[in-house]
Design a protein that fits this description.
Elements lengths: L3 H54 L18 E6 L9 H10 L5 E6 L1 H10 L3 E5 L7 H17 L5 E8 L5 E9 L4 H6 L24 H76 L1
Parallel strand pairs: 1-2, 1-4, 2-3
Antiparallel strand pairs: 4-5
């Protein structure tokens, strides 16, 4: 049996670990709430843009737009959204598993150090790495999106897809590959957008007579690239909420395991101390019996 000194040392170590994981759980819970609020706050703006595009869909021929015209897929382009830090359960592992299932030629851009490390270890083609801070500013997400769109328009890649952890609820984050470009038509593009709910919101078709200036085609040319940026931005917000949710759950599990281990160690320590006291009493009694 381990000595009481060794057990006390382990108890102190486990208490420190429980304190750290408890603090990390609270921080992750706070950040998760802020990330969810940000995603919800962004939703009406994205919905309004979707309604505007839906109003244009019946008034313009979108078959010639480069974002909506199909092409032969020779090289896929994937934006991989991962975390900068670990301690978030199987979140990144699930993303890497989905990435490893891609067997066709593909080029990657990545957000997050974990994704860049995985692509480097596995020898996959990495075009660029982007860093986005905890506040998830639109300007930083826009840089990554515009990079992918530029590579798509130049013909270096034939698709733009996003692999990210889709936030379903606090306990479930689903690794998802979502196509962004190209899509068959504007209606399909709108139906593939991200929603904070489990059921994707549908755009409202506006059939009213309206005057569009300068013309529907020009409006589509200006609005669609910006909507792509907002679409990817919504995916990044979902990924960030998933990260904090997974980290909160992982830290809570670690804290609970530390508490269970601490109870076992306290029981073992009390048994060891009682055994030591019993041995001392036996030794004293034996010494007194021998002297008598």
């Amino acid at each position: 049996m381990a000595s009481t000194r060794d057990i006390r040392r382990r108890i102190k170590s486990v208490k420190n670990t429980r304190q750290i994981t408890r603090a990390m759980e609270l921080v992750a819970a706070s950040k998760m709430k802020k990330a969810q609020q940000t995603a919800l706050a962004n939703r009406p703006y994205t919905q309004l843009m979707a309604d505007m595009l839906a109003a244009l869909s019946a008034r313009v021929d979108d078959s010639t737009h480069p974002f909506l015209s199909a092409r032969e897929v020779k090289t896929r382009g994937v934006l991989l959204l991962t975390t900068n830090m670990g301690l978030c359960g199987a979140l990144n592992a699930n993303l890497f598993k989905l990435t490893a299932e891609i067997k066709t030629p593909v080029k990657y851009a990545v957000v997050g150090r974990k994704g860049a490390q995985f692509l480097a270890r596995s020898g996959r083609s990495l075009m660029a790495e982007f860093s986005i801070n905890d506040r998830v500013p639109f300007s930083e997400v826009k840089q990554a999106t515009e990079f992918m769109v530029r590579k798509y328009l130049e013909g270096e890649i034939d698709t733009v897809e996003v692999i990210y952890p889709r936030f379903k609820n606090t306990l479930v984050q689903e690794a998802t590959c979502r196509p962004v470009l190209p899509l068959a038509n504007l209606r399909e593009f709108l139906d593939h957008r991200e929603s904070t709910d489990s059921v994707a919101a549908q755009s409202r078709q506006d059939n009213r007579e309206m005057l569009i200036e300068p013309d529907p085609r020009a409006i589509l040319e200006a609005l669609l690239p910006f909507y792509v940026n907002r679409h990817v931005y919504q995916l990044v917000l979902s990924a960030r909420a998933s990260e904090y949710s997974a980290r909160m759950v992982a830290m809570k599990t670690a804290k609970d395991n530390a508490s269970t281990l601490l109870d076992d160690l306290m029981l073992k320590y009390n048994k060891a101390r009682q055994a030591a006291i019993t041995n001392e009493i036996i030794e004293i009694a034996a010494a007194q019996f021998a002297s008598a």
